[in-house]
Write a structure and sequence with these properties.
By secondary structure, this protein is of the alpha/beta class. It has one domain: 3-Layer(aba) Sandwich (Rossmann fold), CATH 3.40.50. Helices cover 31% and strands 33% of the residues. Strands 1, 4, 5, 6, 7, 8, 9, 10 and 11 form a nine-stranded mixed β-sheet that branches. Helix 5 links the parallel strand 10 and strand 11. The chain is globular. 37% of the residues are buried. The model has no long low-confidence stretch (mean pLDDT 96). The structure holds 1-O-pyrophosphono-5-O-phosphono-alpha-D-ribofuranose, uracil and magnesium ion (MG). The site of 1-O-pyrophosphono-5-O-phosphono-alpha-D-ribofuranose (PRP) has 23 residues, from strand 4, strand 6, strand 9, helix 4 and helix 6. Belongs to the UPRTase family. One of its GO terms (biological process) is uracil salvage. One of its GO terms (cellular component) is cytoplasm. Keywords: Allosteric enzyme, Glycosyltransferase, GTP-binding, Magnesium, Nucleotide-binding, Transferase. Pfam families: UPRTase.
């Protein structure tokens, strides 16, 4: 099942708070970070462990550590930056790759304007972060870029997904799992998720567009 709706009560509660129409930029950023931490926790639950012996206060002791996994977090600009710190709180040694895409308001197609990837993508788990999976055009384009560079373990973390985007993502990349905090009803005629969050990028950056909030 490539799209996993996280049912944890904390996640569901926080997504509900994010939907308040008059939410402040500060509160939206804080909640986005908190949801990102919880999604990262869920999406890493199968990371393998290995035993190592450390010097504990009581003497040599065998403990678990994550087995040599290299991770790159991939925020999709701009809105993905709002989730970056939350994921890094959980995986502080992760490297960061950045993809810049902006949806054309008429065609809804993602327009590519920036990319900077870390090396050794063939050996890394990529955790793509973007609050919104609407048509999934931006997510599919980012996965295409990662796969072209040899990345094989690709996971996506989103806060709200539309059924249309889920279907498109499952068709284009059935091997990629996507964790979402909510699956919403549908897209409106402008490609916005209903009920959704409005324009997540504008809310995180404080560039509120009165027509989409
Ligand atoms: O699934 P899609 O139909 O591609 O839509 C989702 C994309 O749209 C939003 O970004 P936007 O293009 O508005 O850019 P921004 O983050 O700079 O605001 C959002 O953050 C996703 O990247
Ligand atoms: O609902 C949506 C769809 C795309 N981008 C957003 O920020 N919100
Ligand atoms: Mg936007």
């Amino acid at each position: 099942m490539p799209v996993i709706a996280v049912a944890h009560p904390l996640v569901r509660h926080k997504v509900g708070l994010l939907r308040e129409a008059d939410i402040s930029t500060k509160k939206f950023r804080e909640l986005t970070g908190e949801v990102a931490r919880l999604l990262a926790y869920e999406a890493t639950s199968d990371f393998p462990l290995e035993k190592v012996t450390i010097n504990c206060w009581s003497g040599p002791t065998e403990v678990d550590q994550i087995a040599g996994r290299k991770v790159t977090v991939v925020p999709i600009l701009r809105a993905g930056l709002g989730m970056l710190d939350g994921v890094l709180d959980m995986i502080p040694n992760a490297k960061i790759s950045v993809v810049g895409l902006a949806r054309d308001h008429e065609t809804l197609q993602p327009v590519h304007y920036f990319e900077k990837f870390v090396g050794q993508l063939d050996q890394r788990t990529a955790l793509i972060v973007d609050p919104m999976l609407a048509t999934a055009g931006s997510m599919i384009a980012t996965i295409d870029l990662l796969k072209r560079r040899g990345c094989k373990d690709i996971r996506a973390l989103v806060m709200v997904a539309a059924p249309e985007g889920i279907a498109a993502l499952e068709k284009a990349h059935p091997d990629v799992r996507c964790w979402t905090a909510a699956v919403d009803s549908h897209l409106n005629e402008d490609g916005y998720i209903i009920p959704g969050l409005g324009d997540a990028g504008d809310k995180i950056f404080g560039t509120k567009d009165e027509t989409t909030r």
